[in-house]
């Protein structure tokens, strides 16, 4: 019997390396200039993806879910370390019909199908919130590296849609991305502890599943860095393998985004490649 070769080996014990990505970024024809731009840069942005009424309704849902007594100890509510401030609300597409209707109206599903060349399902969803004065940072990482190692996603045939519920400005912790880095796979070093997600979801400087500072610096020199700002209602769709991060928010201006991950139905999850137990379903749904 021939065993399948893992082309995205990570969490290595030796020195990690940067390798060329063997799979395409776009899994369909590149006839549309917007889709070609996605293939080249790893992301696209659209203004006005949802209207003001849906923005207000989603913000009300953030407050309702985050402060509901029944959700106080729910593991899907992630709070800032040492604080009661909400950092993320997972499974938001299941917890709120209002949020899911906003996602459906945004065009994100159709765009994901075009990029991934197949039907899609929601691998993960969350509301990311950076309250004024208390919003923590998200360190540089590739989402696919985590989803491959800890969830068993075979290939980087997934993309994420981030829909802004508040203005994303240069000063309140917006998404930063290194355009072009989706074309590489950046190995990470270190063994994955069991239940590591309990630490990594709240840490601003995780120890496992992040590229080395040398690799981050090298890719920055090659590709530079884009700061993705926009008004409330704007949408950014980006490749699951692109290196991205966001700084903390010490301004009075909160930042809130709906974040939906679409995976191809032809990229079904297997057992985690790191050899660890499966993470909770709210982090990695299986169709």
TrEMBL record:
Q: Which cofactor does it need?
A: Fe(2+)
Q: Does the keyword Metal-binding apply?
A: yes
The family database entries (Gene3D superfamilies) matched by this protein are listed as: q2cbj1_9rhob like domain
Keywords of the record, alphabetical order, are: Dioxygenase, Iron, Metal-binding, Oxidoreductase
> So what does this thing catalyse?
L-ectoine + 2-oxoglutarate + O2 = 5-hydroxyectoine + succinate + CO2
- Stored Pfam families: PhyH
Q: Which GO terms describe its molecular function?
A: oxidoreductase activity
InterPro entries linked: EctD, Phytyl_CoA_dOase-like
Q: Subunit structure, briefly?
A: Homodimer.
Function of this protein?
A: Involved in the biosynthesis of 5-hydroxyectoine, called compatible solute, which helps organisms to survive extreme osmotic stress by acting as a highly soluble organic osmolyte. Catalyzes the 2-oxoglutarate-dependent selective hydroxylation of L-ectoine to yield (4S,5S)-5-hydroxyectoine.
Name the family. Answer: Belongs to the PhyH family. EctD subfamily.
Q: What is this protein called?
A: Ectoine hydroxylase
Q: What is the lineage of its organism?
A: Bacteria, Bacillati, Actinomycetota, Actinomycetes, Mycobacteriales
